[in-house]
Amino acid sequence: MTQQSRTPLAAPGPGRRQVVGRLFGLGAAALAAPVLTACGGATAASDPKTVTFGSNGADATPKAAYAAVTEAFTAQSGLKVKTNTVDHDTFQKTITSYLQGTPDDVFTWFAGYRMQYFAKKGLCSPVDDVWEKIGDGFSEATKQLSRGADGTYYFVPLYTYPWAVFYRKSLFRERGYEVPRTWDQFVALAKRMKKDGLFPIASGYGGGDTWSVLGAFDYLNLRANGYDFHTSLMRGQVSFTDRRAARVLDLWRELTPYYQPSGGGRSWQDAAQTLLDKKSGMAVIGLFLGQQITDDAVRADIDFFPFPEVEPSHGQDTVEAPTDGFMLSRRPKNEEGAKKFLEFLGSARAEETYMRADPSNLAANEQAGTGSYNALQKKSAQLIESARHISQFADRDSDPGFVSTVLLPGLTEWLSHPDDGSATLKKIESQRSRFFTA
Asked: pLDDT by residue (tens digit) across 215-244?
């Protein structure tokens, strides 16, 4: 489907691709990307048999998984689904202007704060009546992630996945490496890998992938300062010049000599491939790493461990486990059909259908069967179940404008020449009041 029907309203600031373009000198042509606009038009708007669906699943695996789900829905309901697929970065960058225009009936988005942000702005519709039919399938924690600040449901979850430190079991076995539990053990292992001629930690945050650096930032903050401080920092309730925030960059700087060089010129996929090729020893990444794997023998050789403990008082008790799913636009063209679609999307059947096509995630519905789960999925489910706290991800736990225009450019610039971080943190702090009010 083409992305062309209108010129969107101005977005509230530069997105990931624009930020990185400034950092690395990319020209306008390199930044050009398709625009997220509504699918269909007059025909879809007047057709009660059609539901329009805005999707950020442009990569081959999620695209195939969403196609399987929409086909199953059509077979069950008789309603057609017109899917408007846009790459993940462009979707993120233009989502606000898209929702302010005439968006698709249902669209992909994220649980927690990012959902609450659009609910507060009135850019989506409540789905309490949908939850009356699907609620039995979800835990209380997942329900909480799906409600706005007003207690109303605005989100239907599809899947979740953890972030951790991934590695190849055969490489660890061949080199005699042991899985680290503490920070000192982690740094010592990285040092040993570097001596052995490996890139200890795969790194790729070029193009639209600057968001990937937030995994390390989050875990360092969670492990050093705990869940409550991390949440307060992301919500703008604590100064970025706080000594605890400074400690995060101190720890990170200790790790940066072991990063794969020139990460700003490499995508996360390219960085992940070096892990699969045994050129890098470890990667701080999400379970979506599995999208890169086509060889079952390689998939069986992948393992992970929780991000190491920094402070014993916080241990490894928090797991970064973003939850993705769907929302209903503020004025859907086919509200009745869209809610039927959301009921299906929240069902165990839909989630089982999705997971069969995309084995790099975990079903959010607890009634969904796990018989098709591979070893990584089973271990991931255990990791999430054992967590005392679940965080989403920095760019989902904070104001989107603050993250895209202040935090991310600040951190990626700092990574290019890591110092004590004081100037970077002062610059970030100077912008905090623009986005957060007391």
From this structure: 999 999 999 999 999 999 999 999 999 999
Q: Which of 184, 308, 314, 322 is nearest to 244 (CA)?
A: 314
- Joined tokens for residue 40: 């269909």
Render 229-294 in DSSP notation, one character per residue: HHHHHHTT-S-TTSHHHHHHHHHHHHHGGGBPS-GGGS-HHHHHHHHHTTSEEEEEEEGGGGGG--
Residue 148, sorted as left (phi over 0), alpha (psi -120 to 50) or beta, turns out to be: beta
Report whether CATH 3.40.190.10 matches the domain 163-320+395-435: yes
Q: Where in the chain are the domains?
A: 16-158+324-367, 163-320+395-435
- The span from the CA of 362 to the CA of 376, in Å, is 10
Give CA angle at 58 (56, 62), nearest 5°: 90
Which tens digits make up the pLDDT trace of 114-141?
A: 899 899 999 999 999 999 999 999 988 8
Contact 106, 53 (CB under 8 A): yes
The pTM score is: 0.81
What is the spatial distance between Cα 341 and Cα 77, in angstroms, rounded to a whole number?
9
Instruction: Give residue-wise pLDDT tens across range 364-379.
Output: 999 999 888 889 999 9
- Using CB atoms within 10 Å of the CB of residue 321, give its burial: 0 to 12 exposed, 13 to 18 middle, 19+ buried: buried
324 touches 108 (CB < 8 A): yes
Is CATH 3.40.190.10 the classification given to domain 16-158+324-367?
Answer: yes
End-to-end CA distance of the chain: 44
